[in-house]
Design brief:
Its cofactor is Zn(2+). The protein is mainly alpha-helical. It has one domain (about 1-225). It contains nine helices and no strands. The chain has helices at about 1-35, 40-45, 55-70, 90-120, 125-150, 160-165, 170-175, 180-200, 205-225. The termini are far apart.
Length: about 230
């Protein structure tokens, strides 16, 4: 029974903040698209707080769990929110707003989690403070991780779509063409380069450079600013 309780405890402190972060990230994309003129996500039920509508079983649960257990890079994905960019008012501006909405939501959730950890947690019953602290710590980490990772300027990530929206048309077209190969580029950079670097005696840990370092820095800044 003790092992089962420990398993349930571990699942709640990791799965709850991750599912909330992913669900609100995706819902924010859909809501932003609706506000910018495209109701595709709304009609398909994707502006929802029901995580089942957004979770990809393998990409959101199984793969991140395996990587976490193996001590590797936290990597995964949710079901993409359907957006018809041609229906957006001002398609280029709309693309930027819709793409930035997901990471923006994650930053907002990280800020809320820091505020709760600093100002509310000390007033909660002692017997649940440890559980709440782990949930809030993981919420801060997961939300900053999603925000930073998704703002890497490579399509199909949100940062790539923002980049396409702000670049002049000739350059935007060239960047947009990377969308089909973008995920392969990311996988090679995150998983293959570190292995290759280890064999060559080089530090090619792209995840640490581009994601983990900024996440740690942002976390420290939020705590210092919001105390």
């Amino acid at each position: 029974m003790g092992d089962l309780a420990g398993l349930v405890y571990g699942i709640t402190v990791w799965a709850l903040p991750l599912i909330l972060a992913v669900t609100l990230h995706e819902a924010a994309h859909g809501y932003a698209a609706l506000m910018m003129g495209d109701d595709t996500a709304s009609r398909m039920g994707r502006i929802s707080l029901n995580p089942i509508r957004h979770i990809d079983p393998f990409g959101t649960i199984i793969l991140p769990g395996l990587l976490l257990a193996l001590g590797g890079v936290m990597f995964g994905w949710a079901k993409p929110v359907p957006v018809n960019f041609a229906r957006l008012r001002s398609p280029r501006l709309g693309m930027i707003v819709v793409a930035a909405a997901g990471p923006g939501m994650n930053v907002a959730l990280a800020v809320i989690s820091v505020l709760l950890a600093i100002h509310l947690l000390p007033h909660m019953p002692r017997d649940i403070q440890g559980w709440l602290l782990l949930n809030l710590d993981n919420a801060i980490y997961f939300n900053l991780l999603l925000a930073v990772f998704n703002m890497i300027p490579i399509p199909p990530l949100d940062g790539g779509r923002v980049l396409v929206g702000v670049l002049p048309a000739p350059l935007a077209w060239r960047v947009a063409r990377l969308e089909k190969a973008g995920m392969i580029i990311l996988l090679l950079a995150l998983f293959v380069l570190p292995i290759l670097g280890g064999k060559l005696g080089l530090d090619l840990d792209v995840f640490r450079w581009l994601v983990q370092g900024p996440v740690d820095t942002l976390g420290r800044v939020l705590v210092e600013v919001l105390q």
